[in-house]
Design goal:
Largest sheet of chain A: 3 strands, antiparallel
Distance between the termini of chain A: 57 Å
Number of strands of chain A: 9
Number of domains of chain A: 2
Order of helices and strands of chain A: EEHHHHHHHHHHEEHHHHHEHHEEEHHEHH
CATH class of the largest domain in chain A: Mainly Alpha
Radius of gyration of chain A: 22 Å
Largest interface: A-D, 37 and 37 residues
Helix content of chain A: 40-55%
Number of helices of chain A: 21
CATH superfamily of the largest domain in chain A: Hypothetical protein af1432
Oligomer: homotetramer
CATH topology of the largest domain in chain A: Hypothetical protein af1432
Strand content of chain A: 5-15%
Strand order of the largest sheet of chain A: 5-9-6
Chain lengths: 393, 393, 393, 393
């Protein structure tokens, strides 16, 4: 068996299908897509890629399947899905997901297309595997697909530990050995065995702390918003969305610097916008929280207009309402399968915490920050008595 | 400067006072007291001692003092207190604390006596330090003593990380670098700077997970109850409590085997009692939860009587009502110092979780477990409809 | 499958034989024997035991067997031997080996006796395994016994990594994943596959650095010599050697303090003798290097006599001539199985290095060090021009 | 003080000069230059960059200076040099060094130019530091410059540990805590204090093992040779060398794909040439070992001609004769400063080992490998009886 040395899981053995899939251009491209996109601008050691992450997910899924006693054809499809689950990502991963969806009108089914028309698809077929079935497992969140994408999936187990290893922030270091040992497959669902409410909670807590300290760090959010907007301009400027979607990070970085220099150069050199507004949920009117993409753009223009600055100097960043996927993981309590949220008081508390941490961001170059802050407060009707809670001193 | 190599903090530099204190018999005794007493019967790598833990607390307290810009005489006393904070412990640490207190009638002031009449006390004086002031800092929970014993103390920061390193359970691995960097000293209290609600919560969460998975593991609780009872018999059998209190683990282990063999040999060979009852709070009458030590012993005799087994075959283990010390740590929120429990929704949830995890334990040799379970249900009037929730199958 | 959490290898799964063996008194006793005996007096975190080490050796041997495709009865015997390989050790492991051998006249065959008359032996038989065959594998250094005790054995792989983890000295951290993947079993011998001269060398280098920095640290050697001498007096004083051999560390520590207090109390409180002489090979006459045990004792008396100090105040410590077992490990080079020493120039250099590091030690209480140094130089005829090379300033 | 979280050293505190230097375009560019260039094609987690490495070198140099008691202006210049030591690197670091030197005719003095004409230079001056003095310290290998570039420099200490962390190969994990504690500054040279021959050797051994297992892995060498040749063609094709030298990795990767696709696409997709020849020193005529760059190119054309393949299908890779810089590190032995090679037998052995590992490589696309191997054997007059030692089966 071929093996790859990994800094997180040590040697990862590849079955023959995986060994061939790794050599395809679709998979090799993942070498050039960072796992944490703009987080590296805050945590400079976080340069790990979707390539090694995908190997890690494959590794943990393989171990889980072997622990569950599942093998043969079924297991082979799940392992392939685990390995390939990220090949549909655009450059800079989640950061360009929305843009690609809006422009292509596709929702998630990219992986189907990709496996239907790619070297990876051919490799699957040459080993007697069905690309469509693999694609379903990636999309699915059903049956064994839950091991690839579900509340207790190998994706989450790998990225939490890997992101901790590379950022240096320890909170993602979950006990995946235990999670896998305690997995059961009951009536078509992955569940944790009796006595594992804490095991399930540990996953939730690790995510919550990594969200707060790493994934949603304001510097990463600012850079992310700049990258998104710059990408949008690139596409508006004529770059076909299909071509855009198949870029890797380095392609996008070069394209942005050359074709959208006002943002591209800043991203490359970490010369970032600053927070003009950073407002918690209680001072933001409900309609602002629900702004559509088009309305956000319109608001930016309005703010720029009032502040009398160039339109491209204002970025409005409205995150989605918070939710916690892991809260629906299944665990056996007193012999009955329950959703974690039904049995753990922590779930509710973490939901509140997520709400507490939600922030509306408005970003601008340092020298026009004050004007933009004032204009945004005006446009968004931010509660004036909360003024000291949302401006950044 | 002398330095000691530590597996957790790498090199720990010792100032001249510390270097001399380390050589005293009082401190060297800590080499023979395990940090986690009976937890090693569950996690066999957890053999670390109060000796290295005390060096770790000294190290983190020194770094915190230097970060806070506190030096001179004040800092010297705090560093000494950090180093010596555990020298008052009896054998097997917390496991024998209650027994020693009941028998000596002392509450915590042992450290005073110890520093007043010991080589360590002489060493302090020879360096111009005041043993009484050091003792106050250990006891204190006030002013800079909070660094030794408080909600944000170096003790907690060290043991969480160290216990994680040695058990292999990752959840204690907090970010002490960040905790120390964000410490401030305001109006006589240690607080965390603005923007650190999560930092404070991370300490709480680490403790909660380590409690559930490590510190209160049922096997460790059974062995702990056996050890406590055996120690009690040893003292009842004539061993002076002062002599008992100055034993180290190896002394106690030998003494128990020789003088209380029915329990001592079992502890040494990990031939433990089993759970006859393991009942959550909701099936246990309120008066049982509040049993005094004497009432617990009486209940054991009554259960043994009904079950018709030898009195020493029944151990009743009623843990205290749960509480979360870290919930009162101070953190600056919007410019105002707040208690964590006032600002974090997690605190309430963790309190509920602690309640959910509380268990009344009744332990007995494997061969009389059923009889003891039935008798205990009778004596304690355990809710019959909850029968399947408290017997262990 | 039962599993144990280990701080080095994470979860270790136990087969049914191993699970039963772990519960025997012979194996539980290993909880009370430290892996590195007196090294903990230098590296205070090094409190790990032969219990967890034995589990680790079992784990690595199991993985190697599975990698080599060896299963069934043969593998079962090797796994049992790996788990039990240390149960014959006396208290403080290697430190009391010589004493036990001299007194019992036995050489290595202890494990036979032990497995013939023990609960562990019964457990083996109850699972259809042959205790004598297991004992042979522990002693053997032949065939698959090489996995338990050989140049490329699981014992070495585990202890290097484990000692590094617990001392904090990184040099033992070898790549056991690679060592195991590259193992082959050819004509009754374990060999490393083509292209692995460096893999073999890495084992050698790790041992050499750990020898110099950890295993032979002078403070550990002094404490070891004190312990050995104290044990000798204990046995001379009437403790039956069979009883001595079955003690664990805590028993010995208590017995020494009570019955050989002049050394026992010092060991317990780390109040150690100091180096009076620390002489390299080139200043020590050849006959001194070859002193027998009886001659060493006679020399101590002579030195004490000349120095006019109590006889028990002089300890002479003559280590064996250095050798490097790993140098004979087998590796395939250009298709031919070779001994590492035939193909690696490092082996010769490391042999020289070991010679360079060899030291004759004479130890004494601090206050009589000078007198003892002078007398020892006289008795041993230490080269006078080398005077500044062997006294410790 | 500003601090950056690092996965290797945890928090790195930045003094005000460093904080400003980090924000310059010259330093930010290092985010886009991988530390190990093509090694990531073998060890996929090795994606760390010169940015975080430079922070690490700054950190270790700061600690060493503080340990040596050196501060003020002198220390400030050394710290700045440690931080900036890599800003002169071209894309893909060492891989393009030769090309840049040949084309610009410069040798090392790039850093002078850079600091003379850059934002980083201005920042230095604004803080009262002298850019020329900083440049000298980077180049120097003299005085305190030895801390930046010398046998015991912070550069080496950081990269060994960091490369181990990111590749997963443990052998680079040296004990930098000890190295720094044992540093002394004597008569203008960095030396290790008495008793540290092993400490010095450990550095040597770590490098030797990392060389064999990581840095000179054949897959990395093949990709490196492809990258070098492709870069050469890019420059021959008209890209000004000054522009080339200021590229970052992503720029080069895009440029190669677009302008030298026959190699660029292969590098990006890890579709690499294979070894046609891999010959040890003893089968390679001495004049081949000494081939100049121009002669190497001529040999490639000759081989291609004989093999009847396209000229670009042959890559000849002649590494320099091996040497070991660390062998000249200084260490105090018996009170006298000595070079390590004068006192350690390991140095000679490692030199031999390096010679043993030297390989002449000739690489070609898989489908013409045999023809190229035969032609190369002919052109280079490779010893025919060694045939089975240099072809790769």
């Amino acid at each position: 068996m071929t093996a790859v040395k990994d800094s997180v899981h040590d040697y990862i053995s590849l079955d023959p299908v995986a060994a061939d899939l790794v050599d395809t251009p679709e998979f090799q491209r993942l070498r050039h897509i960072k796992q944490l996109s703009t987080v590296r601008l805050v945590y400079p050691s976080a340069n790990h890629t979707r390539f090694e992450h995908s190997l890690g997910v494959y590794h943990l899924a393989s171990r889980a399947l072997s622990h569950l006693g599942i093998d043969g054809d079924r297991a082979a499809h799940v392992r392939a899905a685990a390995l390939l689950h990220d090949i549909g990502h655009g450059p800079y991963g989640h950061q360009t997901e929305d843009l690609i969806r809006r422009r292509t009108g596709r929702d998630h089914d990219e992986i189907d297309d990709l496996l239907g028309n790619s070297v990876a698809g051919e490799v699957l077929e040459s080993h007697g595997l069905d690309p469509a079935r693999v694609a379903d497992l990636v999309d699915g969140n059903a049956g064994l697909g839950q091991l690839v994408s579900g509340e207790l999936d190998a994706d989450r187990m790998d990225y939490l530990v890997r992101d901790a290893h590379h950022t240096g922030v320890p909170y993602g270091t979950i006990d995946h050995g235990r999670l896998i040992r305690e997995l059961r497959y009951r009536e078509g669902n992955l569940v944790l065995a009796e006595g594992n409410v804490q095991t399930a909670e540990s996953l939730l807590l690790a995510r919550a702390l990594m969200n707060a300290i790493v994934y949603r760090h304001h510097v990463s959010r600012i850079a992310g918003a700049m990258l998104e907007r710059a990408s949008e301009r690139l596409v508006e400027d004529g770059l076909p969305i299909e071509e855009f979607a198949r870029m890797a990070d380095h392609d996008l970085l070069v394209a942005l610097r050359e074709r959208v220099p006002e943002l591209g150069e800043r991203i490359e050199r970490r010369n970032l916008y600053k927070r003009a507004v950073w407002a918690p949920l209680e001072v933001v009117p409900a309609d602002v929280v629900e702004l559509t993409h088009a309305e956000t753009r319109a608001a930016e223009r309005e703010i720029a207009d009032i502040a009398d600055v160039a339109p491209k100097s204002v970025l409005v960043d409205v995150p989605p309402r918070p939710g916690i996927k892991e809260s629906r993981s299944r665990v056996v309590v007193n012999g009955v399968v329950q959703r974690l949220e039904e049995t753990s008081e922590l779930v509710g508390a973490l939901r509140s915490t997520e709400r507490t941490q939600w922030r509306l961001g408005v970003y601008a170059p340092d020298d026009v920050r004050d004007e933009v802050a004032a204009a945004a407060a005006d446009v968004f009707d931010l509660s004036p008595h909360g003024i000291d809670r949302w401006t950044v001193l």
